[in-house]
Every structure is written in C-alpha cells, then in structure tokens.
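Input set for joint prediction.
Command: fold jointly, output tokens.
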Amino acid sequence: MKKVDLNNMKLINELTNIQNELLPKVILENSFDVNEIKTIAGVDLAYWDVNNTTYGTCCIVMIDYSTKEVVEKVYSYGEINVPYISGFLAFRELPLVLEAAKKLSNEPDLYMFDGNGYLHYRHMGIATHASMYLKKPTIGVAKSYLKIQGVDSIMPKNIKGSYTNIVINNEIYGRTLRTTENVKPIFISCGNWIDIETSTEIVLNCINNMSRLPIPVRLADIETHKIRKQLIENDLGG
DNA sequence: GCGACAG
DNA sequence: ATCTTGTCGC
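tokens >
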C-alpha cells in the first residue's frame, strides 16, 4: 500500500482550493490594444543550495517591444522554502517574482513567464496566477509539455510560426508553437487578460535567431545565471 | 517496484 | 531547476 503524507495532503488541498477560487478571475480577452504595447517583461528564476538550504533569484528583464532593447533589469533573491510540486509552481516562485516586480521603476505593459498559464490542470499556471497580483496581462511560455488528462501535444510542422492547439474538453488550453525551424517547439498559453491569438502573435514577434524562446524570457534566463554567480561569489544568499 | 513530473 | 564535455547531425 502506498504511504500517504497527511500533512502534505492537507497542504495540497489548500493550495488547490486557492487555485480554484482564482479561476473565475481569468479572462481570455485582450484588456488592451495590441498596438499600444510599448514594453514587455520576461521573468525567470535560478536556484542553488548552501548547507541543505535552497536559495533562489528572480530576474525580470524589460524590453522595448519595437526595438527589442533592454529598458530595465531588476532582481530579488532569498531562501526558498516551498518545494517544487508539479501544478503548484506559482507558490514556490511568486514571492521572489513579486519582490522583484516591485523594484521596477516603470511597470511593463505585459509579462512573459517561464512556465505555463492557462495550460494547467486548473488553469492556474504561474503566468495566470501571477497576473492576479501584477495586475497586468501575462503570457505563459514553457519549454516542456505538461500533459493534462492524458492529452498529448501534436507536433506542428517544421516551419517557423506553425502551431497545433492543445485541446482538452473541447477547450483550447494552449498551443505547441514552432518558433524556430529544426528546433523543438515551445508551449505557450494565455496568462490572463489576453487571447491565444494575440499571445501567439506577441511571442512570435519576440523571436530572434538567438533562441527558440521569446527574447524577454531568454534574457531573464541568462540574467538569473549571471546574478546567481555574483551572489555565490560574494557569499550572499548563504 | 514503476512511471510521471511546468520549473 | 541543477549536476556538466564533448560530440553527433544538418
């Protein structure tokens, strides 16, 4: 018989309830004019361990949507006490994300996350969950597929921009999107206050020849590694 | 014991 | 996520 951790079960139930209660606040329609988007911020985290304690740093890189130039970079760091559990990533990463976001001198028009949004067991991936606090439109960008209810992802054609919808229960949860030819696709989904067509368009407009990931997320990813190295060298976060 | 599993 | 160099393929 399988062991059951009652404390953990209780926690999971509480977190699941929180996610279910937030769902009614999700709106998959644009709350803005696409032509008015000036800046987009990419969000990512990196982790490391010191004496059995896990530390993390969250970096947010904001770019100018038209020129793709970096406008501002901020970061936060600290102890991580919530374990990674598939389906509950937001509870682990949001504290540092919100702390970093507060440091931005100007709010971006939209946030892109390294992880899912609506493409989630309860439509509450980190991109969607974060929007509740950031109060801005968000998009989820995942590098690997989170299988839901046994539904597999269908490989899109090997042409930049082609995609297949991830349909579950007659509803589009997200898209498997080919952003670069001959490179495996990414999995995008609405975060909040945006539709899937617009999400796809914006992600594709942020692809350059350097990565299959949209520029904001890629730059945030690179930044987390840089900041982590700095923090470790300076004996901070330990 | 085995397979699943966003980051 | 993280540990890590070279190497197979186009």
